[in-house]
UniProtKB/TrEMBL annotation:
The chain crosses the membrane at residues 41-65, 77-98, 158-175. InterPro entries: PAP2/HPO (IPR000326), PAP2/HPO_sf (IPR036938). It comes from Candidatus Roizmanbacteria bacterium RIFCSPLOWO2_01_FULL_37_12. Coiled coil: none annotated. Residues 84-196 form the Phosphatidic acid phosphatase type 2/haloperoxidase domain. Keywords: Membrane, Transmembrane, Transmembrane helix. It comes from the Bacteria. This is Phosphatidic acid phosphatase type 2/haloperoxidase domain-containing protein. The keyword Transmembrane helix applies. SUPFAM superfamilies: Acid phosphatase/Vanadium-dependent haloperoxidase (SSF48317). Signal peptide: none annotated.
Length: 207
């Protein structure tokens, strides 16, 4: 019984943090960005995170630039691609197939009116049908970013910025609770760091 009340309090806390964060984002942007533009902007970043496409594109571009500087396929290039594929694939399977179906947390947009209808006068939202915890967008984004940043340290701030914006977009649009995203981001980061550690034993994962 005690665990039940603790769980309810925890869920309530997560809801309030989610609402507070969305309100802060809205208040911060509204002086310079209209509601409709906010919706379009976060919708765009959410779309970027719908699959690993944006991260695959970044990997391809980095390989093209590397090819121009150093023609030929190097061991570093092979390590980069191999590590990326392993980390992102593991992140997708872990978050989307394993954890979501174990926890089975409903999405906020399917349960909570305050979280689902985020714009005044808006009466509908396109709520995804799968479960909420953890955020697959955040898991994939931070798994990919961790790998890419290890091989391109100069622009790591840019990659993490994209990952953060993709993650925030899911909260703003009412698709995820705050902790869905935080745990997803940590899970993605942990998967990549663990994979690096394992691959380093074979010398394949060294940037």
């Amino acid at each position: 019984m005690l665990f039940y009340y603790w769980l309810l309090a925890f869920i309530r806390f997560d809801e309030e943090i989610t609402l507070l964060l969305r309100r802060k984002i809205y208040d911060l942007l509204i002086p310079i960005v209209r509601q409709k533009i906010q919706l379009d902007m976060f919708g765009f970043f959410s779309f970027l995170g719908n699959s690993a496409f944006i991260w695959i594109l970044i990997v391809v571009l980095l390989l093209i630039f590397e090819e121009r500087k150093n023609p030929g396929i190097s061991k570093r290039d092979i390590a980069f691609v191999t590590t990326f594929i392993l980390c992102v694939s593991t992140a997708i399977i872990t978050a989307q197939i394993v954890v979501k179906n174990l926890v089975k947390r409903p999405r906020p947009c399917s349960l909570n009116f305050r979280l689902a209808f985020y714009l005044p006068g808006r009466r509908e939202t396109n709520c995804p049908k799968d479960f909420s915890f953890p955020s697959s967008h955040a898991t994939i984004a931070f798994a990919a970013t961790t790998v890419i940043s290890a091989f391109d340290k100069k622009r790591r701030w840019f990659y993490y910025l994209i990952a953060v914006l993709i993650s925030l977009s899911r909260i703003y649009l009412g698709y995820h609770y705050f902790l869905d995203v935080v745990v997803g981001a940590f899970l993605g980061w942990t998967i990549s760091k663990t994979m690096f550690y394992q691959l380093r034993k074979t010398s394949l994962g060294r940037p």
